[in-house]
What does this fold into?
Amino acid sequence: MSDTPLAPRKAQARHDRVVARWLWDSFIRHRLPIIGLAVLFMVLEAATLGAFSYLVQPMFDDVFIAGDRGRVVLVALAMAAVFFGRGLARLVHKSLMAWQAHQATAELQAMLLTHVARLDQGFFKHHAPGVLIERVRGDSGALGGVFNGLITGLGRDGAAVIVLFGVALWTDWQWTLIALLGLPLLGLPLIAIQRLIRRRSTDARIAAADSSNRLDEAFHGIATLQLTGSEAREVGRFRAIMQNYVRKATRAAIGQAAVPTVMDFGAAIGFALVLVYGGLQIIEGTRSVGQFMSFFTSLGLLFDPMRRFSALLAEWQAILASLERTHALLQIQPRVTNPPPPHLPIPAREKASVELRNVSFAYDSEPVLQDLSFTAPAGKTTAIVGPSGAGKTTVFTLLTRLADVTDGAVLIGGQDVRGMDLAALRKLFAVVSQDTALFDESLRDNILMGAEDVPDAALQAALRDAYVDNFLPLLPNGVDSLAGPRGSSLSGGQRQRVAIARALLRDAPILLLDEATSALDAKSEAFVQEALARLAKGRTTLVIAHRLSTVRNADQIVVMDRGRVVEQGTHAELLAQGGAYARLHALQFGEQATEATGGQ
It folds into this structure.
């Protein structure tokens, strides 16, 4: 007897019913007409098996033993029709179910991406991209197994069991009961194996997610691996992860294979008993060879779908292990949601001031900002500086509601951002960051980002003002050239200029610049700085900068440290105070002076 506590088992059963109901409502119910048509052809395929086993009796008794020449052609044509019908029925139902399986899987993957795209940054802090890729692509693949495996098995093998069982009963009901004597003994072993499969399948899916994440990190950091000579180390780590996956996936596969094996044990007992009992009856002359061969054929064909039918229970456990992870992902609620109407008004460009009032924020229990307060006046440039880890980038995260404050309020134009329509709020911002997000699409698509009905004159103006038109002649197809994966076909300065063109076209009242020029050479930086100056004109601009030389002309500078504002003022005022900003300035310009003199 299993030592699994009863309460957890009941809770698992309730959860399984919830997942099954979600599966039914979301992916199966509206497909019932096509599934029903496919099941009809599954039944036809099963009927051909019954017809074949039934025709074995006249083939032996009337043709082979009695030598009735007149029935040879008739039986032969009947057998040919059976095989032709079986092949046609199988082709139709497999095609229909494959179509529905691929369609449902694509639908689920789109559903998962739609849902995950709505989650806040706290979620992505704890879920690596590779793991999420496996959750979307790998776990959702189990839905295809519902159509190609579960429904097909229930329809085809269920009908085959009924038809062949009927033929066996019709031939000899006593032989049939004897053949099935061993099956009741298999109940408890099958239940234990199914529970084992569930656990091992879940472990295998988790291991698969680890391997996907390792690959994602390796490919994204391939240059670092090559430059540091760490390829062998990374391959070794991947091998270790894959060995863990192979071990767990193999255990799950062995569990699934054990189910039909146990069924074979039951079949062995049944076949042996029937062979002894029926064989004696044939020797005595009370049963014919044709009857026994017809029964033996139907029974042999019967145990095959019964074996597969029992394996469906194991397959269902493996499918549930993946689908419950998918369902759990869909149950994660975004912490940032659109507020119910009426929404607070969106401020006009000239009134789009930014204020953080006593803001505190933490990722889980990790504090990032503590009682942070400052105001960025509308139409002015405010620079935010400070050491790494001070919380500068988190300010931008809260402004755009990629996450919400733990305490305090973020105000734009005097209005709390949590009361504004989320889509309208984010249209207030244009962002240019150090790690510019470009996609493997054309430059045009990367700049438009889905915007429709954009006049070509507006696009050309953005290309010109961002100095993108300077390097377009160097590209094979101009603005329609592909940017490459993560913008790899462009240099760092070119990627930044594309991002600036995107921001110019967006024409948002608030501009957020996050280390926009920190990774550029002097020539590229000159182009980008001039483009940024054009972009910032007339906008409320917030700049995160490490190099203080890039923000000395800002209207005000906010100095942060450990999630708090420690100083605030103009460049000259902060230098005169001799505090944190002055120390940062002395440190940076002291380093630059040392570099300029060659370290002498």
